[in-house]
Design brief:
- The structure is a single chain.
- This protein is α/β, with parallel strands linked by helices.
- The chain has helices spanning 4-10, 50-63, 77-88, 105-114, 154-163, 214-227, 233-243, 246-264, 284-290, 307-316, 358-372, and strands spanning 70-74, 94-98, 118-122, 138-142, 167-171, 189-193, 207-211, 271-274, 299-303, 321-322, 332-335, 348-352.
- α2 runs parallel beside α7 and α10 (307-316) crosses α11 (358-372).
- The longest helix is centred in the C-terminal third of the chain and has 19 residues, at 246-264.
- The protein is globular, with a radius of gyration of 21 Å.
- The N and C termini lie far apart (63 Å).
Length: 382
């Protein structure tokens, strides 16, 4: 058995061939030579591409090292999310979504309801979705949730959903397949935005859905083909290249996130501090059981007294970009309320820890907090 770091470096690579690169370059093709019947693996650029194939194989190895998984790559995380939902649900079905999930889920809810699909919602914490499963066709889980970082018991929810005949999909974006493996915990789908930690450099939009069930994979793949939500070959190649450093990045980011959370816990102006790796976090006992030790994600969330305070803090940071998204090598932070789609206080900060030295990042954050304090006075240099 190989470790996650070794697997990430080797995943999806072809057999070694003399004078050939370990990771072949991207295949740019709209069509392929196709004599006779259309029976080959590559026929048309919207159906399949060798560069996707290698990336999908690699992600499948990371999501499920001990059992074959089928992965379908998409042009973005939202393309993957909607592919799973709309390929599995029909008019008259019911779906259970998290009420505290990603901010575009309300827009997805509106679209689902317009198709005659019943949408039920409950928070992630305390496995609250359990009470809504009767008669549901699909349960959608975010754990940890974005941006609140609550954790639910995936195996418990999956077992309960399956007992009622429902499918289970888990948005695994925040945890990454190195921090948590939903398929091993009983989920039918593990879905993620590869835009975040998977690619990790803030330069690629990508998504994917993985499953053990070939028929489910085929249904999602047909949706991709039908709506054309395909990833570009260059993006797929960049994503595959980035996987080689995933374990290194996840490890450094998790270390930095825990260091930051521990430092923020000592600050009186900080409230609502959340990070699953923090021993005082309400989700910590479950996270220890469910997530891989030491890999509790790169995101820390907390609240400052008000909007102005939060904006002064963000403006004072020097090692952190004021930007949305998370999981990149450069730390980012944002006042999440500016988007209007999350039920969070105006001073709520979602902070994504990069791969900077933790002590440098903590020092920058503490200095910025001091600068943001309206009672802070800098003494003149004598």
């Amino acid at each position: 058995m190989t470790g996650d770091g070794t697997r990430a470096v080797r995943a999806g690579l072809p057999e070694s061939a003399a004078y050939e690169p370990p990771l072949p370059g991207p295949v740019f093709a709209a069509h392929y030579h196709l004599p006779g019947d259309a029976a080959g693996p590559y026929t048309y650029g919207r159906d399949a591409n060798p560069t996707w194939t290698r990336l999908e194989a690699a992600i499948g190895e990371l999501e499920s090292p001990d059992r074959p998984a089928h992965t379908v790559a998409f042009a973005s995380g939202m393309a993957a999310i909607t592919a799973v939902l709309f390929s599995q649900l029909r008019s008259g079905d019911a779906v259970v979504l998290p009420s505290d999930g990603y901010q575009l889920l309300p827009a997805v809810r509106t679209r689902l309801e317009s198709y005659g699909i019943e949408v039920r919602t409950a928070p992630t914490a305390d496995d609250a979705q359990l009470g809504l499963l009767d008669g549901a066709r699909l349960l959608w889980i975010e754990s940890p949730s974005n941006p609140g970082l609550d954790v639910c018991d995936i195996r418990r929810l999956a077992d309960a959903a399956h007992a009622r005949g429902a499918l289970v999909a888990v948005d695994n974006t925040l945890a990454t397949p190195l921090g948590q493996r939903p398929l091993d915990l009983g989920a039918d789908f593990s879905v993620a935005s590869g835009t975040k930690a998977l690619t990790g450099h803030g330069d690629v939009l990508l998504g994917y859905a993985s499953t053990h069930d070939a028929a489910l994979a085929d249904s999602v793949r047909l949706w991709r083909k039908t709506v054309g939500a395909i990833p570009g070959p260059m993006e797929s190649w960049l994503a595959h290249r980035s996987l080689a450093t995933l374990a290194l990045r996840v490890r450094q980011q998790a270390t930095g996130a825990l260091a930051l959370a521990m430092a923020l816990a000592e600050r009186p102006e900080v409230t609502g501090l959340r990070h699953p790796g923090l021993p005082s976090d309400p989700s910590h006992p479950l996270a220890i059981r469910q997530m891989h030790s030491g890999r509790f994600g790169c995101v820390v969330s907390f609240t400052l007294p008000d909007q102005a305070y939060a904006e002064r803090f963000l403006a004072a940071l020097t090692l952190v970009d004021d930007a949305t998204s998370f999981g990149g090598v450069r730390s980012t932070a944002e006042r999440r309320g500016r988007w209007g789609g999350d039920d969070v206080p105006e001073g709520f900060i979602r902070f994504s820890v990069g791969v900077e030295e933790p002590e440098d990042l903590v020092a920058d954050v503490l200095r910025a907090l001091d600068a943001a304090n309206p009672d802070h006075h800098v003494r003149p240099v004598a």
